[in-house]
Amino acid sequence: MVMAGLPKSLSGQDVGSFAYLTIKDRIPQILTKAIDTLHRHKNEFFEKHGEKGMEAEKKAISLLSKLRNELQTDKPIVPLVEKLVDTDTWNQYLEYQQSLLNESDGKPRWFLSPWLFVECYMYRRIHEALIQSPPIDDFDVFKESKDQNFFESQESITALCTHMKELMKTVEDLEENQLKEEFFKVLQISLWGNKCDLSLSGGETSSQKTNIVNSLEDLKPFILVNNMEQLWLLLSNCKKTREKSSITRVVIVLDNSGFELVTDLVLADFLLSSKLATEVHFYGKMIPWFVSDTTVNDFNWLIKQLKHSNHKWMSRCGVDWENHIKTGRWVYLDHIFWTLPHEYSAMSQVAPDLHAALQKAHLILFKGDLNYRKLTGDRKWEFTIPFHEALNGFHPAPLCSIRTLKAEIQVGLLPGQGEQLTASEPNWLTRGKYGIFQFDGPL
Ligand code: F6P
Ligand code: MG
After folding, report:
1. For residue range 262-302, what is the model confidence (pLDDT) as tens digits?
2. Which residues contact 198 (CB under 8 A, 6 or more apart)?
3. Which residues approach ligand 1 with their CB closer than 6 A?
4. Alpha helices, H only, 242-295
5. Which of 105, 151, 336, 367 has the highest Cβ tally under 10 A?
């Protein structure tokens, strides 16, 4: 699966790196928080399921404590045991990781193996722990923090929905260059929405308190790669050349729920009302993932919350968005591939059906940091390597990563740009302060 000549994977082997610190500090913190959440829901489990609920809570907690212990003592990564649709694929991938090691390295381990693999594995093991603990097997240990992020971002969400619905009134009459300006605004809103993920803060709250629309100008200098123009050219060209009955499909591979999801839905709403797209397909996660990632429950919950809001424009957004779903102009989809550990260059082999579906898109937007890591294989690329090369053969359709930087990986920079940033701001790659719109594909 690995092509010769590819750089090494980011890994916990590099003591002091962000990968190392994540495995050492942040992941155990996330596990502790999950255990604590289960504890706090004890009474709820009892009310719902009686003694069986209490026993299940104990079991899930003991499985998660065991997992935390395995991690902290750098034990070998063990195969998954509970038979689910993706179990065999996971265990095959574990064997593949084993095959990459020298005899002397022994088995894949937390601090030895690629960071992307062990971090994904951790979330999959949390899922397994819950699955092994019926009747609380459908409990999402991260749901509470995702919802909290939504509630704590109310002010900013209100401002966004208001901006959006005001804009809708005039969108039909906008001149071409005004439309482009508004398109760039919603793109940037969606970019900075990615600052608020919860796994970076170890599951602690990370909401958006201010009106993001007013901050866009100030944030512009922090966009390191800005291919918004290419996105405009591509979609405005689709709009101009499309026949009456034909479609323009944009796929958004979603990242976090809560505030970020609102920003993505605002973008998707704009795509329809501006006619830059005729349909939007969203992909979410099938299991709770990287703390704040969107599942179908989160997606439906958020739209319902907006719909029932007392605020006129928020509820209007909720109603309109529900309508887009009913009429099929918005389609929510999921696929098990998104919660596998594979890099995207393996998609055509591991999930050919998903790859074929993505090929039908006119444009694919990949939201967030984890998607970027999977697009580029989470490898130690030089900063100046072209994005196209780092994608390592993954080109189902024109695509764009919209991401704030939260991992030590960035490609496609100008010569010297990365080195300069490193000299002036040692943490520039991991704080979520910088962002990119990085496009690949013919126009
Ligand atoms: O735990 C670290 C990490 O994988 C980082 O790459 C990133 O900070 C986060 O999790 C996920 O970020 P996002 O929600 O933007 O994909
Ligand atoms: Mg995420």
Report:
1. 999 999 999 999 999 999 999 999 999 999 999 999 999 99
2. 142, 145, 146, 149, 204, 205, 206, 256, 291, 292
3. 22, 26, 119, 194, 197, 199-200, 255-256, 290, 368-370, 373, 406-407
4. 259-273
5. 367
